[in-house]
Amino acid sequence: MEYFIQQLINGITLGGMYALIALGYTMVYGVIQLINFAHGEFFAAGGYVGAIALAYFAGVGYMDSHPVICLTASFLIAMAYCAYLAVGVEKIAYKPLRKNSRLAALLSALGMSIFLSNGMMLTQGVYDKVYPGELFQGRFDFGMISISYLQIMIVSLTAILLVSLNLLVFKTKIGMAMRATAQDKTMSALVAIGSNRIISLTFAIGAGLAAAAGIMYGLYYGSVKYDMGFIPGIKAFSAAVLGGIGNITGAMIGGLIIGMVEIFGAGYISGEYKDVFAFIILIGVLYFKPNGIMGENIDDTRV
Amino acid sequence: MSDQPILELKNVHSGYGSIKALKGISLKVMPGEIVAIIGANGAGKSTTLMTICGIVPVEKGEIYYQGKLINRVSPEKLPTMGLCQVPEGRRIFPRLSVEENLILGAFHREDKDQIAKDIRHSYELFPILGERSRQHGGTLSGGEQQMLAIARALMTKPKVLLLDEPSLGLAPIIIQQIFKIIADINREEGTTILLVEQNANLALQAASRGYVVETGEITLEDKASSLLTNPKIREAYLGE
Fold first, then answer.
1. What are the helix (H) ranges across A61-184?
2. 3-state secondary structure of A244
3. Are A292 and A241 in contact (CB under 8 A)?
4. Residue from B70, B78, B91 to probe the interface with A (highest A Cβ count within 10 Å)
5. I want to staple B226 with a disulfide (CB 3.0 to 4.6 A). Which of A35, A84, B32, B222 is the partner?
6. Is some CB atom of chain B closer than 8 A to the CB atom of A187?
7. Element holding A14 (H helix, E strand)
8. How would you label A187-220 residue by residue, b for 16+ Cβ within 10 Å and e otherwise?
9. Is B83 left (phi over 0), alpha (psi -120 to 50) or beta?
10. Chain B within 8 Å of A180 (Cβ-Cβ)?
């Protein structure tokens, strides 16, 4: 039983990170029907910027005196950096192709992914970049179960981000405009909603969330690497498909499920196969329920 | 009423790629008028409205709104200038609630109190929308969607309202209701209306002037009352 609860806690931690990444896939798909294969690189870039910022703060000695401020600042810097990066990527690689076939933008996304990943390799090197290790070392122990401060921080921050996103999308006027743009761009323009602005905003939010997940990942596993966006990116994409691509609540649920399955699979079946479980789910969903759990109609005629 | 047209098209050409839908449309709408464009299916009526709104780009010719050239103004700017369209097929946001659809009509407006007042006014104008305010737009009937589409357009505070086939697919009793409201909007708010209709009889009764469009060109322009009695029009568009 203790083992089960321990795995559950680990699963929520990992699943929350997948959910944060999956949201970017699903939001971008919702608005421009593009699978943004470069999205995993925003996650990796966020991890790097976080590592650089934290190392800088540690170097100047602020880390010991003001750890919370340093961590908050690192998150904000990484999220802002990736938001701008994503807006730039959209303007350069996707916007010029918007009138062409969807395949053109998809190939452009694959190219962007390789470009960004190699960019990180050239500027940051091929070796793991270590995260400052002394953060959130403490842990609570309840018998056999142990929860680290870091896990608590990750899960609470994930929850805050997910709730904020929900409020933004479902309660504010700009969120309404995002949903309207996803449903009918021509009509949105006829009520003064500029789709370019909304598309940029969608990329920025998605990449910001991925960047937050990138730092969490770095803190959790202790290091980042230039190609770290690939596997978690595909797993988060599986999560978005599982939840129903285009559906925000679906991406959150899908992320949690993929994280749980991975942890439980590794814990009860075999750690060797931990990367396989997410893809088994992806294949299963595509085969049996291609619309996903919360999926909207795939043949929905959006303009 | 001034003698300066609020909306004017001069020899406008536009189309979709190699298909030329408009081949030199010229028309004028004076402030406070109701003007009808009638014509057969595929004549270019909807394209005319979509070209005015900047959705279909102008290839040749000029469009003036309040004396300003608007050929190159981006589509999302025009509603903020008071030029708004209710497109064919209503195009309600199906997975947004009725109220959210209305709020988005006021997307560019900052006057929160007035927006809330205008939403209440929409519900007075169309009580059924008030009853269904929390329902998704996609669950409404055709007539209710048309009402919502008009109410949403009014939320932009239009000076010129372009209406594309407001009668399409609706029961006669609903059509009467909609056209009464169109007349009210014109009379009470002074909103100028450019109306596109296949139902020529209905459109010409509501309008003061009318244009006949055939294969992308204006073939006739007259007072609505004269068009209604014109034997050629009666034969071609009024089914006699």
1. 62-65, 67-89, 102-124, 149-171, 173-183
2. coil
3. yes
4. B91
5. B222
6. yes
7. helix A2-32
8. bbbbbbbbbeebbbbbbbbbbbbbbbbbbbbbbb
9. beta
10. yes
Convert the pLDDT of each residue in B177-236 to its tens digit. 999 999 999 999 999 999 999 888 899 999 999 999 999 999 999 999 999 998 888 888
Does residue A170 sit at the B interface (CB-CB below 8 Å)? no
Helix (H) or strand (E) holding B120: helix B112-125
Q: What are phi and psi of A194, to 5 degrees?
A: -80, 115
Is A2-288 a CATH 3.60.21 domain? no
Give the list of residues 6+ apart from residue A61 with CB closer than 8 angstroms, or none: none
Question: Of B75, B100, B103, which has the smallest distance from its Cβ to A190's Cβ?
Answer: B75
State the DSSP code for A149: H
Instruction: Please enumerate in sequence order all residues whose Cβ is within 8 A of that of A169, keeping only pairs 6 or more positions apart, or say none.
Output: A175, A178, A179, A248
Hey, are the CB atoms on A183 and B75 less than 8 Å from each other? no
Q: Which of B105, B90, B7 is nearest to B48 (CA)?
A: B7
User: A286 vs chain B: nearest CA distance in angstroms?
Assistant: 24
A117 touches chain B (CB under 8 A): no
At position A140, the amino acid (one-letter code) is F
Whole-angstrom distance, CA of residue B205 vs CA of residue A217: 68
Q: What is the CATH code for B7-90+159-237?
A: 3.40.50.300
Q: Is A183 on the interface with B (CB under 8 A)?
A: yes
Amino acid found at A241: V
Q: Report mean pLDDT in 10-residue bins for chain A, 303 residues.
A: 90 96 95 94 97 91 85 96 98 93 93 96 92 76 86 94 95 95 95 95 98 96 93 95 92 95 91 87 88 65 31
How far CA B207 is from CA of A197, A246, B239, in Å, comes to: 38, 44, 19
How far off is chain B from A186, nearest CA to CA, in Å?
7
Would you call A176 and B104 a contact, using CB atoms and an 8 Å cutoff? Answer: yes
Structural element, H or E, at residue B213: strand B209-214
Read off φ and ψ for residue A268, nearest 5 degrees: -105, -25
* Structure tokens given for B237: 């568009």
What ipTM does the predicted assembly reach? 0.92
